[in-house]
Amino acid sequence: MSDPGHRSGAGHDWEDGSPERLYVITGGRSGSSASGELDLVTLIVARSAPRAGMQPEHAAIMRMCQAPLSVAEISAYLSLPVSVVTVLVGDLLAGGDVLARAPVARAQLPDLALIEAVIDGLQKL
Fold first, then answer.
1. Are 101 and 71 in contact (CB under 8 A)?
2. Rounded distance, CA 63 to CA 61, Å?
3. Secondary structure of residue 69 in the 3-state scheme
4. Which uninterrupted H or E stretch holds 75?
5. What number of other Cβ atoms are within 10 A of residue 42's Cβ?
6. Count of other CB atoms within 10 angstroms of residue 54
7. pLDDT for residue 122
8. Sheet of 69-70, strand order
9. What is the pLDDT of residues 80-101, one digit of tens each?
10. 46 and 62 in contact (C-beta within 8 Å)?
Protein backbone atom coordinates (compact mmCIF):
# COMPACT_ATOMS: atom_id res chain seq x y z
CA MET A 1 0.00 0.00 0.00
CA SER A 2 1.17 3.47 -0.68
CA ASP A 3 1.22 6.40 1.68
CA PRO A 4 -1.75 8.68 0.83
CA GLY A 5 0.42 11.79 1.37
CA HIS A 6 2.99 10.52 -1.15
CA ARG A 7 2.37 10.62 -4.89
CA SER A 8 3.38 7.37 -6.45
CA GLY A 9 6.32 7.62 -8.80
CA ALA A 10 7.02 11.27 -8.00
CA GLY A 11 9.77 10.56 -5.49
CA HIS A 12 9.04 13.67 -3.41
CA ASP A 13 6.22 15.65 -1.86
CA TRP A 14 4.13 17.76 -4.26
CA GLU A 15 4.34 20.82 -1.98
CA ASP A 16 8.14 21.05 -1.87
CA GLY A 17 8.78 23.26 -4.91
CA SER A 18 9.60 20.29 -7.08
CA PRO A 19 10.10 20.86 -10.81
CA GLU A 20 6.81 19.09 -11.50
CA ARG A 21 4.89 21.50 -9.27
CA LEU A 22 6.61 24.53 -10.81
CA TYR A 23 5.80 23.17 -14.28
CA VAL A 24 2.11 22.89 -13.35
CA ILE A 25 2.01 26.35 -11.76
CA THR A 26 3.38 28.01 -14.90
CA GLY A 27 1.58 25.76 -17.37
CA GLY A 28 4.97 24.69 -18.71
CA ARG A 29 5.94 28.22 -19.72
CA SER A 30 9.42 29.50 -18.94
CA GLY A 31 8.79 33.15 -19.73
CA SER A 32 5.95 35.59 -20.18
CA SER A 33 5.22 38.19 -22.78
CA ALA A 34 5.71 40.82 -20.07
CA SER A 35 8.96 39.36 -18.75
CA GLY A 36 10.97 41.92 -20.74
CA GLU A 37 9.49 44.70 -18.63
CA LEU A 38 9.79 42.81 -15.33
CA ASP A 39 12.93 42.66 -13.28
CA LEU A 40 13.66 42.07 -9.60
CA VAL A 41 12.84 45.61 -8.54
CA THR A 42 9.72 46.19 -10.67
CA LEU A 43 6.88 47.15 -8.35
CA ILE A 44 3.60 45.28 -8.66
CA VAL A 45 0.28 46.50 -7.26
CA ALA A 46 -3.10 44.77 -7.51
CA ARG A 47 -5.97 46.64 -9.10
CA SER A 48 -8.60 44.71 -7.13
CA ALA A 49 -9.13 41.72 -4.88
CA PRO A 50 -8.63 38.21 -6.28
CA ARG A 51 -11.51 36.74 -8.28
CA ALA A 52 -13.18 33.46 -7.46
CA GLY A 53 -11.70 30.58 -9.42
CA MET A 54 -8.24 32.12 -9.84
CA GLN A 55 -5.19 29.89 -9.63
CA PRO A 56 -4.08 29.90 -5.94
CA GLU A 57 -0.70 31.48 -6.72
CA HIS A 58 -2.33 34.24 -8.77
CA ALA A 59 -4.77 34.90 -5.92
CA ALA A 60 -1.90 34.99 -3.40
CA ILE A 61 -0.08 37.59 -5.50
CA MET A 62 -3.26 39.67 -5.76
CA ARG A 63 -3.76 39.55 -1.97
CA MET A 64 -0.18 40.46 -1.08
CA CYS A 65 0.08 43.25 -3.66
CA GLN A 66 -2.65 45.47 -2.24
CA ALA A 67 0.37 47.68 -1.47
CA PRO A 68 3.23 47.78 -4.00
CA LEU A 69 5.75 44.92 -3.75
CA SER A 70 8.77 44.16 -5.89
CA VAL A 71 9.01 40.99 -7.95
CA ALA A 72 11.85 39.87 -5.64
CA GLU A 73 9.66 40.35 -2.54
CA ILE A 74 6.79 38.41 -4.11
CA SER A 75 9.22 35.61 -4.95
CA ALA A 76 10.49 35.51 -1.37
CA TYR A 77 7.04 35.60 0.22
CA LEU A 78 5.73 32.81 -2.03
CA SER A 79 8.97 30.79 -1.79
CA LEU A 80 8.95 30.47 -5.57
CA PRO A 81 11.78 31.13 -8.04
CA VAL A 82 11.79 34.58 -9.66
CA SER A 83 11.36 32.96 -13.08
CA VAL A 84 8.08 31.40 -11.95
CA VAL A 85 6.89 34.64 -10.36
CA THR A 86 7.58 36.60 -13.57
CA VAL A 87 5.38 34.15 -15.50
CA LEU A 88 2.58 34.48 -12.93
CA VAL A 89 2.84 38.28 -12.75
CA GLY A 90 2.93 38.39 -16.56
CA ASP A 91 -0.37 36.50 -16.61
CA LEU A 92 -1.88 38.99 -14.17
CA LEU A 93 -0.55 41.94 -16.19
CA ALA A 94 -2.03 40.52 -19.39
CA GLY A 95 -5.39 40.14 -17.65
CA GLY A 96 -5.27 43.69 -16.30
CA ASP A 97 -5.37 42.44 -12.71
CA VAL A 98 -2.15 44.15 -11.61
CA LEU A 99 -0.10 47.16 -12.59
CA ALA A 100 3.68 47.15 -12.93
CA ARG A 101 5.80 50.19 -12.30
CA ALA A 102 9.50 50.54 -12.75
CA PRO A 103 11.20 51.74 -9.60
CA VAL A 104 12.32 55.33 -9.36
CA ALA A 105 15.44 55.67 -11.48
CA ARG A 106 18.72 56.19 -9.72
CA ALA A 107 19.89 59.75 -9.62
CA GLN A 108 22.66 60.25 -12.12
CA LEU A 109 25.99 61.25 -10.67
CA PRO A 110 27.11 64.75 -11.57
CA ASP A 111 29.96 65.20 -13.97
CA LEU A 112 33.40 64.64 -12.38
CA ALA A 113 34.61 68.00 -13.72
CA LEU A 114 31.76 69.75 -11.89
CA ILE A 115 32.64 68.03 -8.61
CA GLU A 116 36.30 69.02 -9.01
CA ALA A 117 35.30 72.64 -9.76
CA VAL A 118 33.15 72.77 -6.63
CA ILE A 119 35.99 71.34 -4.50
CA ASP A 120 38.41 73.90 -6.04
CA GLY A 121 35.99 76.72 -5.25
CA LEU A 122 35.55 75.55 -1.66
CA GLN A 123 39.31 75.32 -1.13
CA LYS A 124 39.76 78.91 -2.36
CA LEU A 125 37.34 80.25 0.27
1. no
2. 5
3. strand
4. helix 71-78
5. 20
6. 16
7. 93
8. 69-70, 43-46, 98-101
9. 888 888 988 988 998 899 999 8
10. yes
